[in-house]
Specification:
Blueprint (H helix, E strand, L loop, with lengths): L1 H22 L4 H18 L8 H20 L5 H14 L3 H24 L1 H4 L6 H17 L4
Length: 151
């Protein structure tokens, strides 16, 4: 059963990343497609989709929201990115969301370097990188490391 949940979560993350890459937005319906079942599972089983305790899920949601909110205030992240980080935080729980944000920062760094190499400094300086792609990458890294027993 855990493998099915892992595959569904990874497929959802890939879908979010592809849509953000193409449209530069994260539709609320995609966020609700994960958040609503995650809330139901938490209420029904007493633990989150990914096995997080109820308060860990709430702390994860709050951390995902609060740690990305300054990026939104600085106009570096969109509102969808902030909501995405919060939903992912709810699923992963605390402290896994912190690892997700660190992994996302590394993915974003690699994407930035790739943009520099492809576009050159002048064009890359003004390019907008879809943050949901990096967040989805960090989410996938944490899910896979948890599955492998490394986190």
């Amino acid at each position: 059963m855990q493998d099915v949940v892992l595959c569904v979560l990874l497929a959802w993350a890939v879908t979010v990343a592809v849509i953000d890459w193409r449209l530069r937005k994260v539709p609320n319906v995609l966020l609700l497609l994960l958040l609503v079942p995650a809330i139901v599972v938490l209420g029904w089983r007493g633990q989150g989709v990914n096995g997080a305790a109820p308060m860990a899920s709430v702390y994860g949601l709050a951390a995902g929201f609060m740690l990305t909110l300054p990026g939104y205030a600085a106009s570096k992240l969109g509102a969808g990115d902030v909501k995405l980080a919060a939903v992912m935080g709810f699923v992963l729980g605390w402290p896994a969301v912190a690892w997700m944000l660190i992994a996302s920062a590394l993915v974003l760094f690699v994407m930035s370097i790739g943009g520099l190499m492809v576009m050159g400094f002048a064009k890359a300086k003004t390019a907008r990188i879809p943050a949901a792609v990096a967040l989805s990458g960090g989410f996938a890294v944490v899910l896979l490391t948890q599955r492998g027993g490394w986190l």
